[in-house]
Specification:
6% helix, 53% strand, flat, 507 residues, six-stranded mixed sheet, seven-stranded antiparallel sheet, 51 strands, Thrombin, subunit H, mainly beta
Length: 507
């Protein structure tokens, strides 16, 4: 809120105008305070945004802080407080835990430390995993229980799925889709409240990366089949198991302990010459990656080997191109077995959206390659951000940015709203503003770029602390974080050692 100007006193005043102006000012001030209570200003961008919230830990107790580092809930709980969605002031507290029986109680607090959603017997965040296997929480709905039945509500308390179910669980790796159980039968619902598949199967799972790929279903006889998004039978439920491997209208099923490939009519396509099928190639018509004697190869559906089983692993990336592992080293081959990249790397990954390869050696040095396998940048790989379209590397103790065309960009290009930019001089780190003016002197042995909340981690004499968006010290370098995988600060709070737990700690 800006300060008003000071005017010289006039000899005569129009009291009606003064009164009207005073009322207007009061109304404006009230409005500003109401808005300020609802919103907070992002210290890095100057934009008005919703606050973020994080679990905090201090003196062996758990609480919640906001993105300015202030306590929202004082650390006072024995059990970790769950913040399912950092943008929502909704926090799940666990108490009265009986470690012998596994029983416990939960309650939900808002950002005013008030209990909400008290009409339910129990409220829980829904755990899931991301593509990398990391623990995450569903960010749109909460699981609620009343009178022994479960349903879903959103973060405003609105009922999304009525409390009709014996249980509701996330589907691993799939967001906003849930398996429900009713009368001992399973179905699928989504976070919009839609019943995708009625609860009519003994068990059900997603076939591919989302609902649209279809579902693997199990009948009362323990046999598996496939139904599509509209619950139309694709494969009859007569198989011992069905793998999450499909493509070109072909599916991998197991009968009498032996895998085979069938088409959508249920006819056999490939039945022998392999121990298991790992991938049906989308780029090579009627070809698969198979395993035999723990080695990977490629064959067509006639059983002809296109590449003999000789690799520790194979993964298709682009048409006719494969990441391969041999003798513990990664390389790249084509469908003709020609070595396109030598087997000398500790890992190789491919990002489809960016259409780039990332190689890494034993000492974590990385090369970034284009689709033609030409090296375009090198350094220690830090991040690939699909949304903002950049690659971040650490090169000679400095951060380098590149777009997906491999054009080098500055930190200011990628984050134009940041207030401080990391700079190095004479072996020491400091911060400058967007015009290059030194804001934080070059006194630190190491430092991190400004985070989304305006704070920067700085290191001096082996200890870490933080500065705020204006360069003021918020935490003197106090913490030894040598064993930490991620160094980040919000005010005086530093990120916890277990990055999966996603909490901030303070002495």
């Amino acid at each position: 809120m800006s300060r008003g100007r000071r005017y010289d006193t006039e000899p005569k005043l129009n009291m009606k105008k003064v009164f009207a102006v005073a009322i207007a000012i009061i109304v404006i001030i009230m409005f500003i305070f109401i808005i300020k209570g609802l919103l907070t200003k992002d210290t890095t961008s100057g934009k008005i945004i919703t606050k973020s919230y994080f679990t905090s830990y201090k003196d062996n107790k758990w609480g919640v802080i906001d993105s300015t580092g202030n306590n929202v809930i004082d650390p006072s709980y024995k059990e970790m407080i769950i913040v399912p969605n950092p943008k929502k002031g909704v926090f799940i507290c666990t108490y009265d835990v009986n470690y012998d029986t596994g029983e416990y109680k939960t309650k939900v607090l808002n950002d005013k430390n008030e209990e909400i959603f008290k009409e339910y017997d129990k409220i829980e965040a829904i755990q899931n995993t991301d593509k990398s296997g990391n623990l995450i929480y569903e960010q749109n709905v909460l699981k609620v229980q009343k009178d022994g039945k479960y349903g879903l509500i959103d973060f405003d308390g609105k009922e999304v799925i009525s409390m009709d179910y014996q249980d509701i669980t996330a589907i691993s790796g799939i967001e906003n889709s849930f398996k429900v159980k009713k009368d001992n039968k399973c179905g699928i619902v989504d976070s919009d409240g839609k019943t995708v598949i009625q609860a009519q199967y003994a068990d059900i799972d997603i076939l591919g990366k989302d609902n649209k790929s279809g579902f693997i279903v199990k009948n009362d006889n323990g046999k598996y089949g496939i139904v599509d998004y509209s619950n139309t039978q694709v494969l009859e439920s007569k198989y011992d198991s069905i793998e999450k491997v499909h493509g070109n209208d072909m599916y991998v099923v197991t009968v009498n302990g032996k895998q085979k490939i069938v088409n959508k009519q249920g006819s056999d396509v490939l039945t022998s010459g392999f121990d298991s099928i790992k991938q049906i190639l989308s780029s090579q018509e009627n070809a698969v990656i198979f395993v035999q004697n723990n080695k990977y190869g490629i064959m067509d559906v006639t059983g002809k080997a296109l590449i003999e089983a000789q690799y520790d692993k194979l993964e298709e990336t682009k048409v006719g191109t494969f990441i391969a592992v041999k003798d513990g080293k990664f390389g790249i081959i084509d469908i003709n077995k020609e070595e396109k990249l030598p087997f000398e790397y500790s890992s190789i990954t491919y990002n489809e959206k960016a259409d780039i390869y990332i190689t890494e050696d034993e000492v974590y040095n990385s090369n970034i390659l284009n689709s033609n396998l030409e090296t375009k940048a090198s350094g220690i790989f830090i991040e690939l951000n699909e949304n903002k379209g950049y690659i971040k590397l650490r090169v000679d103790d400095e951060y380098k940015y590149y777009n997906f065309k491999f054009e080098e960009k500055s930190e200011k290009d990628i984050f134009p709203s940041r207030t401080l930019f990391l700079s190095k001089k004479d072996g020491k780190y400091g911060y400058v503003d967007k015009n290059g003016k030194v804001i934080v002197n070059y006194i630190y042995d190491d430092a991190m770029e400004q985070n989304d909340y305006g704070f920067s981690a700085v290191k001096k004499d082996g200890k870490w602390g933080s500065v705020d968006s204006k360069g003021n010290v918020t935490q003197e370098p106090t913490y030894n974080l040598d064993e930490y995988l991620l160094i980040d600060f919000i005010g005086r709070w530093h990120f916890g050692m277990d990055i999966n737990m996603n909490y901030y700690n303070q002495l």
